[in-house]
Design brief:
Layout (H helix, E strand, L loop, with lengths): L8 H23 L6 H14 L1 H4 L6 H8 L6 H4 L7 H7 L6 E5 L7 E5 L8 E10 L6 E2 L2 E4 L2 E4 L8 E2 L7 E2 L6 E4 L7 E2 L18 E5 L7 H4 L4 H9 L5 E7 L8 E4 L3 H13 L13 H6 L14 E6 L12 E2 L4 E5 L15 E9 L5 E6 L9 H4 L4 E7 L3 E5 L16 E2 L18 E2 L2 E2 L2
Parallel strand pairs: 8-21, 10-13, 16-19
Antiparallel strand pairs: 1-2, 2-13, 3-9, 3-12, 4-7, 5-6, 8-9, 11-12, 14-17, 14-20, 15-16, 17-18, 18-19, 22-23
C-alpha cells in the first residue's frame, strides 16, 4: 500500500517524454524574452498529476531544481529527482565509506570470492557498515519439491517435507536459539570466515585468526539501540509495516594493509556445521548426477546443437523483447506454422544488450553461411503471458546472433537446488544477542540443518 505511489518503469518512460516537452516550452519562452519562474514548473506538475500522480512526482517544483536536474546525464535526469543530494560537507561529517573493500578471488581454496582492503584500515576503524534486513522466521527460506502444473513449476502441496534451504541463508546472521535472521544489505556479505581454531589456509592460515569483527552499529545508525530492546512481536509489527532498524558494523581488530583479505569469525556453530558437511557430503545422484556448470559452458562457448550432452540442468536462453504494439498476424508464416520475425536486432554491441533478460529458447536451424541461427522463443516463466503463447503459436526469430544465446539452468535445476548443499547462517555471538529474541530451544545434536549422530 505504501509503495503504490512509487514511480514504475512506465512512469519514467512517460516522464522522459514530458520532460522533453517542458524543456522545449521553457526554451521557447526564454527565447521570446519572457520570464521563466517556479510558477511554470508548478503548473506543469499539477497538469501531469491529473493524469498520473506517480509521473508527476518525478518533477521538481522550482526552476532552479529543474535546471540542476538537467545537468545530469539524459538517462539519469528523472532518477536524479527521486533521491536526496546532500552536500560534500554533510557527507564528510556523517557518511561512512562503502568502498574500503573490493571483491576478488579469496585466498582460501574453494571459498569463492572474498573481501580485500582497498586502502589501509587501522585497528578499531569501521571496515564497512552492514544495515540489516530482518527475516522474522527462518523457515520461510525452506525449499520444497516442485511439480509441473499447467506448464509451470509450483510447490507440491502434498509434500510438506522441505528439500533444503535457499542460498540466502548462508549470507544472513542468526542465533541457534532464535527463528530470527538478519541479512546484510551491503558489501559485508562478501567477507569470509576465519578462526584460529583450525587452519583455513590462504591469508587465514598459520593460526592468524580473523582481522575484523562485527558489532551492533554505533552512532551512525540511531535506530539500532531502540530496536535491540524490542520483542519479536514488536519487531514483527514493524516488519509488517516494511520497517527496518538494525545494523551491524564490521570493525578492524588489527591493522589491515591494502590488498589484505578481510575475515570475521562466523562462530563455533557455523564451523561445526561446515566440518560436518565436509565429512558427510556425498556426490549427488538422480537428476543432478549429470549436472554441468553453466559458467563453464558459457566461458568455453560449447556447441549449442549438442545440448543433450551438456547436462540435464541445461537449457538455452535468448535475449528477446516483447513489443506490445506489434500485431501477431503481421508475422504469421505458413512455412513455419507460426510467427516469424527477424532476430538481427538482438546483436550485442559494446558488451551491452537491448534487453537484459533471457527467454527460454531452442535452436531450430543454423544458418549455413555464418554464425547465426533460427531460434524458437518460449514463454518466459518470469514474464506475463504473451498473446502468441496464449494461442499456442510458435515464435521464430531468424538470423539470430550466436553471441546473444547463452546456456542457462532450467528452473529448479541450479546447483543451489542440489541435495546436500551447505546451508548455515553466520552465528551471532551469544553475549550480544538479546535474550527476548530466543524463541527456540537449542538442540546440540542439530548441526547445519542436519540431525547429527
Amino acid at each position: 500500500e505504501k509503495l503504490k505511489h512509487a514511480p514504475r518503469k512506465t512512469d519514467f518512460e512517460q516522464g522522459k517524454k514530458i520532460l522533453d516537452e517542458i524543456t522545449a516550452f521553457l526554451e521557447r519562452k526564454k527565447d521570446a524574452g519572457e520570464k521563466v519562474d517556479d510558477a511554470d514548473l508548478s503548473t506543469f506538475k499539477n497538469i501531469v498529476s491529473i493524469y498520473s500522480e506517480r509521473t508527476a512526482s518525478l518533477f521538481p517544483t522550482t526552476y532552479s531544481s529543474f535546471m540542476e536536474m538537467l545537468t545530469a546525464k539524459p538517462t539519469d535526469q528523472l532518477p536524479w529527482s527521486t533521491v536526496s543530494h546532500p552536500s560534500i560537507e554533510w557527507i564528510t561529517q556523517n557518511g561512512i565509506c562503502l568502498d574500503n573493500i573490493a571483491m576478488e578471488r579469496s585466498t582460501i581454496t574453494q571459498a569463492g570470492n572474498g573481501a580485500f582492503a582497498r586502502r589501509f584500515i587501522g585497528e578499531g576503524q569501521v571496515v564497512t557498515p552492514a544495515p540489516l534486513l530482518q527475516i522474522m522466521n527462518r523457515d520461510t527460506l525452506k525449499m520444497y519439491k516442485l511439480v509441473e502444473v499447467e506448464d509451470k513449476l509450483v510447490c507440491d502441496e502434498n509434500d510438506t517435507e522441505p528439500i533444503g534451504d535457499q542460498l540466502l541463508l548462508n549470507y544472513c546472521f542468526g542465533h541457534v536459539e532464535s527463528s530470527l535472521l538478519l541479512c546484510p544489505s551491503s558489501n559485508a556479505i562478501i567477507i569470509n570466515h576465519c578462526s584460529d581454531r583450525q587452519d583455513w589456509g590462504g591469508q587465514c592460515g598459520g593460526g592468524k585468526g580473523p582481522n575484523a569483527m562485527y558489532r551492533w552499529a554505533t552512532d551512525w545508525d540511531t535506530n539500532t539501540e531502540e530496536w535491540l530492546s524490542l520483542s519479536l512481536e514488536e519487531m514483527q509489527e514493524k516488519n509488517d509495516n516494511r520497517q527496518r532498524g538494525l545494523s551491524f558494523e564490521i570493525v578492524a581488530t588489527r591493522d589491515i594493509q591494502p590488498g589484505e583479505e578481510i575475515f570475521i569469525d562466523y562462530g563455533h556453530d557455523w564451523e561445526d556445521a561446515w566440518n560436518y558437511h565436509v565429512e558427510n557430503w556425498k556426490p549427488p545422484t538422480g537428476d543432478f548426477e549429470s549436472y554441468s556448470s553453466i559458467t563453464r559452458l558459457n566461458n568455453e562457448k560449447k556447441d549449442l546443437l549438442d545440448l543433450e550432452t551438456h547436462g540435464s540442468n541445461v537449457q538455452l536462453g535468448c535475449i528477446y523483447l516483447e513489443k506490445k504494439e506489434e500485431e501477431d498476424e503481421d508475422y504469421y508464416d505458413d512455412e513455419y506454422g507460426g510467427l516469424v520475425k527477424s532476430g538481427e536486432e538482438y546483436k550485442i554491441a559494446d558488451g551491452t544488450t537491448r534487453e537484459e533478460y533471457y527467454w527460454p529458447c531452442t535452436i531450430y536451424a543454423k544458418d549455413e553461411d555464418g554464425d547465426a541461427y533460427t531460434v524458437l522463443i518460449e514463454q518466459s516463466p518470469q514474464r506475463a503471458e504473451t498473446s502468441w503463447a496464449a494461442e499456442d503459436m510458435p515464435l521464430f526469430l531468424t538470423e539470430y546472433p550466436r553471441e546473444s544465446i547463452v546456456f542457462l539452468n532450467k528452473q529448479g535445476a541450479s546447483d543451489q537446488n542440489m541435495p546436500g548443499t551447505f546451508r548455515q547462517p553466520i552465528g551471532i555471538q551469544d553475549e550480544i544477542f538479546p535474550e527476548q529474541w530466543k524463541d527456540i530451544a537449542r538442540d546440540d545434536h542439530h548441526v547445519g540443518g542436519i540431525d547429527g549422530d
